[in-house]
Amino acid sequence: MHAAGCAAPNAASQDAFTFAIIGDAPYKQREEPHFERMMERIDREDVAFVIHVGDIGAGRGICTDAGYDKRLRQFERSRHPMIYTPGDNEWVDCRDMGFDPLERLARLREVFFDDDQSLGLVKLPLEVQQDEAPGCTRYPENRAWTRGGIRFVTIDVPGSNDNRGFSAAADAEARCRLAANRRWIARAAADADSRALVIAMQANPWFTTRHVFDEYLALFQQTARTIGKPVLLIHGDTHSYQVDTPFTDASGAPLANITRVVTYGSPIVGWVKVYVNPASARLFTFEPHIQAIVP
Questions:
Q1: Confidence band, pLDDT 50/70/90 cuts, at residue 125
Q2: Fewer beta carbons within 10 Å, N or C terminal of the chain?
Q3: pTM score, two decimals?
C-alpha cells in the first residue's frame, strides 16, 4: 500500500465517489478463477465504475474472435459499468501469432466498441471520438465521461512500442492514432467546468529505450501545466502497483498537479480502488488490493 494517500478520506463532499482500476489480467488459464473472484469482490464494492486498462489476455488465444468474445462476456457480467481501453496483447502483439494487427484492431472495435455505452450490466453513456483525419480511421475506443465534475478520458496507447517500428503501415497507424489522441485530450482539457482530468491508457510510457512515447509524455506534461488542475494518469503494462509524480516543471521540480498510478498485472491478480473527494486537499487517494499471486 502506497504510503501517501492510501486510506479512504474521513470527510467526503456530496460529489465524492470511488472507482476501480484493473489491467493486464487475466493472462494464464490458472489466473482465470482468481480474476472471476476479484470481479465478484469488486461487484460488492460501492464503486461508480471499473476501468480496465488493457491487455485482456496473453498468447494466441486472446487474439482470436473466440478470445475476444470470452472476455466480452466476462466484462458484460460486471455489476458496475466497465470501461475498457485496448492493450498491446490483444492486437499489436498478435503479429507474433500470425495475425494482422490492424485487422485485429478493427475487429476489437467491432466487438467492444460498437455503441456509445459502457460494458457491464449497468450501462454508462459515454462520449465517443467521432472526428476523423484524412487518411486515418475513426477511434471509437476513445471514450469520455464526467462524474462529480471530474473529466475522464481513455486513449488507445498500447505497449510494445505503440505499434511503431514494425512496418510502414504500422508507423502510419501509430501517427494517425497519436494525432487522434492529441485531439481527444485537447477536447477534454478545454472543459472549463471540470475540477480535474483523468487519462487512462495501457502503455507505461517510460518503459522503453526508443523514445516512442516522448510525444505523449510531453502532451501530458503540457496539458497539466496549461489547465492548472489536478491530472491523474492511469496505466498498466508493467504489472506493479505504483503511485508517484514523475513529471517535472521547467526547473526540474516535480509537477505537483499530475499524479501517475500503475495498476497490478500478471502474475498478480489485483485491483486499485480510487477515492475521489473534492472536499479533500488530496483529491485522489488510492487503496490497492491483491486478490492472488499466481506463479
A1: very high
A2: C
A3: 0.95
